[in-house]
Task: structure prediction
Amino acid sequence: MSMRASPLFAGAAMIVAIAACTRAPYLVLCNRTGLPLTIRSTPPYQADVTIPPGATERARFPDSMELTVVAGPATWHYAVRFPPREMARWSLLGTPEFQLQIEPDGRLYVLPPTVQLPASELPPQPPGFPLSPIA
Result:
Protein backbone atom coordinates (compact mmCIF):
# COMPACT_ATOMS: atom_id res chain seq x y z
CA MET A 1 0.00 0.00 0.00
CA SER A 2 1.37 3.38 -0.92
CA MET A 3 1.66 6.32 1.47
CA ARG A 4 -1.03 8.16 -0.52
CA ALA A 5 -3.58 5.34 -0.12
CA SER A 6 -3.15 5.18 3.65
CA PRO A 7 -4.89 8.51 4.46
CA LEU A 8 -7.65 7.67 1.98
CA PHE A 9 -8.17 4.29 3.63
CA ALA A 10 -8.21 5.87 7.09
CA GLY A 11 -10.79 8.45 5.98
CA ALA A 12 -13.01 5.78 4.44
CA ALA A 13 -12.74 3.64 7.57
CA MET A 14 -13.79 6.62 9.72
CA ILE A 15 -16.85 7.32 7.54
CA VAL A 16 -17.89 3.66 7.72
CA ALA A 17 -17.43 3.65 11.50
CA ILE A 18 -19.53 6.80 11.94
CA ALA A 19 -22.26 5.48 9.65
CA ALA A 20 -22.33 2.18 11.52
CA CYS A 21 -22.95 3.86 14.87
CA THR A 22 -26.55 3.66 15.91
CA ARG A 23 -27.92 6.91 17.19
CA ALA A 24 -29.79 6.53 20.47
CA PRO A 25 -33.43 7.50 19.96
CA TYR A 26 -35.21 10.15 21.98
CA LEU A 27 -38.65 10.30 23.50
CA VAL A 28 -40.71 13.46 23.30
CA LEU A 29 -43.05 13.04 26.26
CA CYS A 30 -46.24 15.05 26.70
CA ASN A 31 -47.69 15.06 30.21
CA ARG A 32 -51.51 14.95 30.16
CA THR A 33 -51.86 13.52 33.69
CA GLY A 34 -52.57 16.78 35.50
CA LEU A 35 -49.69 16.00 37.87
CA PRO A 36 -45.97 16.77 37.69
CA LEU A 37 -44.10 13.75 36.33
CA THR A 38 -40.56 12.61 36.94
CA ILE A 39 -38.98 10.24 34.45
CA ARG A 40 -36.38 8.36 36.48
CA SER A 41 -32.94 8.08 34.97
CA THR A 42 -31.70 4.71 33.79
CA PRO A 43 -27.99 3.93 33.43
CA PRO A 44 -25.95 5.35 31.80
CA TYR A 45 -28.11 8.50 32.02
CA GLN A 46 -27.46 10.42 35.21
CA ALA A 47 -30.37 12.82 35.55
CA ASP A 48 -34.12 12.52 36.02
CA VAL A 49 -36.41 14.45 33.67
CA THR A 50 -39.25 16.44 35.24
CA ILE A 51 -42.32 17.32 33.19
CA PRO A 52 -44.87 19.81 34.57
CA PRO A 53 -48.58 19.16 33.87
CA GLY A 54 -49.46 20.02 30.28
CA ALA A 55 -45.81 20.34 29.25
CA THR A 56 -43.65 18.38 26.82
CA GLU A 57 -40.01 17.39 27.41
CA ARG A 58 -37.39 15.44 25.51
CA ALA A 59 -35.58 12.48 27.12
CA ARG A 60 -33.23 9.73 25.95
CA PHE A 61 -34.80 6.40 25.09
CA PRO A 62 -33.99 4.10 28.05
CA ASP A 63 -31.13 1.70 27.35
CA SER A 64 -32.57 -0.79 29.82
CA MET A 65 -35.90 -0.86 27.92
CA GLU A 66 -37.57 -0.08 31.24
CA LEU A 67 -39.09 3.23 32.18
CA THR A 68 -40.09 4.44 35.63
CA VAL A 69 -42.41 7.42 35.92
CA VAL A 70 -43.37 9.06 39.21
CA ALA A 71 -46.74 10.80 38.98
CA GLY A 72 -47.63 12.41 42.30
CA PRO A 73 -48.12 9.54 44.77
CA ALA A 74 -48.03 6.85 42.05
CA THR A 75 -44.99 5.16 40.51
CA TRP A 76 -45.51 3.55 37.13
CA HIS A 77 -43.12 1.01 35.60
CA TYR A 78 -43.15 0.21 31.90
CA ALA A 79 -41.54 -2.47 29.76
CA VAL A 80 -40.59 -0.24 26.83
CA ARG A 81 -40.65 -1.40 23.26
CA PHE A 82 -39.58 0.40 20.11
CA PRO A 83 -42.45 1.94 18.19
CA PRO A 84 -42.53 1.20 14.46
CA ARG A 85 -40.01 3.19 12.38
CA GLU A 86 -42.80 5.05 10.59
CA MET A 87 -43.78 6.61 13.94
CA ALA A 88 -40.38 8.33 14.22
CA ARG A 89 -39.41 11.86 13.34
CA TRP A 90 -35.79 11.84 12.07
CA SER A 91 -33.18 14.50 12.73
CA LEU A 92 -30.76 15.60 10.04
CA LEU A 93 -28.13 13.38 11.70
CA GLY A 94 -30.41 10.31 11.55
CA THR A 95 -31.51 10.30 15.19
CA PRO A 96 -35.10 9.07 15.65
CA GLU A 97 -37.54 10.79 18.02
CA PHE A 98 -40.75 9.15 19.15
CA GLN A 99 -43.65 11.23 20.47
CA LEU A 100 -45.42 9.77 23.48
CA GLN A 101 -48.36 11.18 25.37
CA ILE A 102 -48.94 10.10 28.98
CA GLU A 103 -52.62 10.02 29.93
CA PRO A 104 -54.08 10.28 33.49
CA ASP A 105 -54.52 6.47 33.69
CA GLY A 106 -50.77 6.03 33.08
CA ARG A 107 -51.07 4.71 29.54
CA LEU A 108 -48.40 5.87 27.08
CA TYR A 109 -49.62 6.49 23.55
CA VAL A 110 -47.22 6.75 20.62
CA LEU A 111 -48.13 9.50 18.18
CA PRO A 112 -47.06 9.91 14.56
CA PRO A 113 -44.64 12.75 13.80
CA THR A 114 -47.40 14.64 11.98
CA VAL A 115 -49.49 15.01 15.16
CA GLN A 116 -49.07 18.17 17.23
CA LEU A 117 -48.67 17.57 20.98
CA PRO A 118 -50.83 17.44 23.01
CA ALA A 119 -53.30 15.41 20.99
CA SER A 120 -56.91 15.72 22.11
CA GLU A 121 -57.89 12.76 19.94
CA LEU A 122 -55.56 9.80 20.18
CA PRO A 123 -54.91 7.99 16.89
CA PRO A 124 -55.16 4.21 16.44
CA GLN A 125 -52.15 2.55 18.03
CA PRO A 126 -49.67 0.11 16.50
CA PRO A 127 -49.42 -3.39 17.99
CA GLY A 128 -48.11 -3.29 21.58
CA PHE A 129 -49.33 0.26 22.21
CA PRO A 130 -50.47 2.03 24.24
CA LEU A 131 -47.98 0.94 26.88
CA SER A 132 -49.63 0.31 30.23
CA PRO A 133 -47.88 0.40 33.61
CA ILE A 134 -46.90 -3.06 34.84
CA ALA A 135 -47.58 -4.08 38.39
In short: Residues 6-21 have pLDDT under 50 and may be disordered. The two ends are 61 Å apart (CA to CA). The first helix runs from residue 5 to 20. Residues 36 and 52 are 4 Å apart (CA to CA).
